[in-house]
Design a protein that fits this description.
This protein is α+β, with helices and mostly antiparallel strands. The protein is built from nine helices and 15 strands. The chain has a domain at 140-433: paralog of FGE (formylglycine-generating enzyme) (Alpha-Beta Complex). The chain is 20% helix and 14% strand. It is elongated and about 155 Å long. The model is unreliable at 1-11, 55-133 and 423-474 (pLDDT under 50).
C-alpha cells in the first residue's frame, strides 16, 4: 500500500485542468481569426445575399439634320451624336442622366449605315471650306504706274480658224508680203470651236519698261536673277549687252528714251510675277483671243483686212526693226479699246502649249473658261511681233516658247477678274491720248532682211542678233 504525508489532502484527476488551460488560448485564437475575417470582408459574402451584377448601359442616339438642297452651296450636313449614360456626371451638382452632344460633319451616305463610336474624342471643329486667299498688298508705286484696264464682256465666240482662212493667209503672206509662210504653221489653230468666257478686265497696253523696272526695284537688288518663282525674271545689261535695263548692284534703271517702250526679254515667270505683284494675272489664251476678235470673229483686232499702218511688224520691207512705244497705232485697237494686240510684241499668256489642244477642246463640246493643258514644255504666245510678217499677227495665230527664256520680241500685258475695285489705273493715264506725240523709235543703222517670217532681223546698232524666233508650233 502507498503512504502519504500525514495531514495531506487526497489527490484528484488533473484532466479538467488541462481542458481549461487549452480552451482559453483556443478561444482567443478563434476570436482573432474572426475579427480579421470581418475586417477583410469575406464573411459578408457568406452572410449577406448575393448582389445582382451592376450593368452600365450606354445608349447612342444618332440625330441627322435635314438634308440640304444639293443645288445650293451649303455647308456639309451635320450629324449630332448624343451619348446618354446612367453614370452620373461628376461635373454636375446633381446625379441622374447626363448628355454630351458633339456635332461633326460626315459624308452623306445612301441607305442605312451603322455609326460606331471611337475611343478617340470627336473634333470640336472641322473646316468645311478652303482658307480664303490672302489679298495682295500692291505697293503704291506699282499702283500709280500700272496700266489702265478695260472691261471685256463675257460671251460665246468662235476660237481658232478654218483651213480656208489659212489658205488665204498663206497666199497673202507669199504674194503681198514676200514671205515664206506655210499652212503647217496654222495647224495648231484647228479646228474652230465654240468657247465661252466670263467677263474680265484686260490692260489696254503692253507692260512698259518703266513699269517693269519699278517692279524690280520693289523686289530688291538682284531679284532679276532668280526672284520670279526661283527663275530669272529678266536679263539686265550685266547679263546681255542687248538688254535695255541697267542694274548697278543697288537699283534698276533704263535710259531716258525708253520708259514708254514695251518691256521685253522677260521670262514667262517674270511676266506672271509682275502681274501678281500689281494684283492681276496673265490672261488665258481664250481671254486674249476674245479681246482681239470681239463677237464678230474678226481676223485682226480692227477688222478682216490687213493694214501695215495699224500694227508694227517687219513689213513694209523698209521698216526699222524693234518695237515702238505702247499704243503707237491707236487706230489698230480692238473693238474693246485694247492696243497692240497685233504686232509690236508677242505676248505671254497663262496657258501651257499643246499642238493638239484645240482638238481636245472641240471634242468636249462647248468649252467654258478654258485654261489650257495641265502641263507642258512651252507657254503660249499671242499676237505676233515686230520681228515677223503679218501672218503671225492674225488674232487666231498661236506661237509658243520656253517659259524660262526671254526674247527681244516677247512682252506681255495683264488681265484681272471682275469685280476688281483696284483695276483702274491712275488718272494721269488717259487712253484717248495714247499713241499721240509719242517719241520716235531710236534710229537704226541696219536694214531688215527680206526673209521668211521666222528669221530674226539683222543686228541692231551696237547690239547682237536675236535668237531665232519661234514658228507657229513653237
Amino acid at each position: 500500500m502507498s503512504y502519504r504525508p500525514i495531514g495531506g489532502r487526497r489527490q484528484r484527476s488533473a484532466a479538467w485542468q488541462w481542458v481549461i488551460i487549452g480552451f482559453i488560448p483556443g478561444l482567443l485564437c478563434g476570436l482573432s481569426i474572426m475579427i480579421g475575417v470581418i475586417f477583410e470582408g469575406t464573411l459578408l459574402d457568406f452572410v449577406l445575399p448575393t448582389p445582382v451584377p451592376r450593368v452600365e448601359t450606354t445608349v447612342v442616339h444618332v440625330v441627322m439634320t435635314a438634308t440640304e438642297d444639293p443645288n445650293r452651296p451649303s455647308a456639309t450636313p451635320q450629324v449630332e451624336f448624343v451619348v446618354v449614360t446612367t453614370t452620373p456626371d461628376p461635373a454636375l451638382s446633381a446625379g441622374g442622366l447626363s448628355a454630351v452632344s458633339v456635332s461633326s460633319p460626315i459624308p452623306a451616305a445612301s441607305g442605312a449605315e451603322s455609326a460606331a463610336l471611337q475611343s478617340t474624342p470627336f473634333p470640336t471643329a472641322i473646316p468645311t471650306n478652303p482658307p480664303a486667299p490672302v489679298a495682295v498688298q500692291v505697293p503704291e508705286i506699282l499702283q500709280v504706274l500700272r496700266s489702265l484696264a478695260v472691261s471685256v464682256p463675257g460671251g460665246t465666240f468662235t476660237m481658232g480658224t478654218l483651213p480656208a482662212e489659212v489658205i488665204v493667209a498663206v497666199e497673202e503672206c507669199t504674194t503681198r508680203d514676200g514671205g515664206a509662210c506655210l499652212a503647217a504653221y496654222a495647224e495648231d489653230s484647228y479646228p474652230a470651236h465654240a468657247v465661252t468666257v466670263d467677263a474680265f478686265l484686260m490692260e489696254t497696253t503692253e507692260v512698259t519698261l518703266e513699269q517693269y523696272v519699278a517692279f524690280l526695284n520693289v523686289r530688291g537688288p538682284g531679284s532679276h536673277l532668280n526672284g520670279c518663282a526661283g527663275f530669272p525674271c529678266i536679263q539686265t545689261r550685266n547679263e546681255s549687252a542687248d538688254a535695255p535695263i541697267v542694274f548697278d548692284s543697288a537699283n534698276y534703271s533704263i535710259p531716258g528714251i525708253l520708259p514708254q517702250y514695251p518691256a521685253y526679254g522677260m521670262t514667262w515667270y517674270g511676266a506672271r510675277e509682275y502681274c501678281e505683284a500689281i494684283g492681276r494675272r496673265l490672261p488665258t489664251e481664250a481671254e486674249w483671243e476674245r479681246a482681239a476678235r470681239g463677237d464678230d470673229g474678226r481676223v485682226y483686232p480692227w477688222g478682216n483686212t490687213w493694214d501695215n499702218a495699224l500694227a508694227k511688224t517687219n513689213r513694209p520691207l523698209d521698216t526699222p526693226p524693234g518695237p515702238l512705244p505702247i499704243a503707237s497705232y491707236p487706230l489698230g485697237a480692238s473693238v474693246y479699246g485694247v492696243y497692240d494686240l497685233a504686232g509690236n510684241m508677242a505676248e505671254w499668256v497663262s496657258d501651257w502649249y499643246s499642238e493638239r489642244y484645240y482638238e481636245a477642246l472641240a471634242g468636249q463640246g462647248a468649252a467654258l473658261n478654258p485654261v489650257g493643258p495641265v502641263t507642258g514644255l512651252e507657254k503660249v504666245l499671242r499676237g505676233g511681233s515686230w520681228n515677223s510678217v503679218p501672218f503671225f499677227s492674225r488674232a487666231v495665230h498661236r506661237q509658243s516658247w520656253d517659259p524660262s527664256e526671254g526674247q527681244r520680241w516677247i512682252g506681255f500685258r495683264c488681265a484681272a477678274d471682275i469685280p476688281n475695285d483696284d483695276a483702274v489705273a491712275s488718272a494721269d493715264l488717259n487712253p484717248a491720248t495714247l499713241g499721240i506725240n509719242v517719241p520716235a523709235a531710236p534710229p537704226q543703222q541696219t536694214e531688215v532682211a527680206n526673209a521668211q517670217p521666222t528669221q530674226p532681223p539683222p543686228p541692231e546698232a551696237n547690239q547682237s542678233a536675236d535668237t531665232t524666233a519661234s514658228n507657229s508650233a513653237g
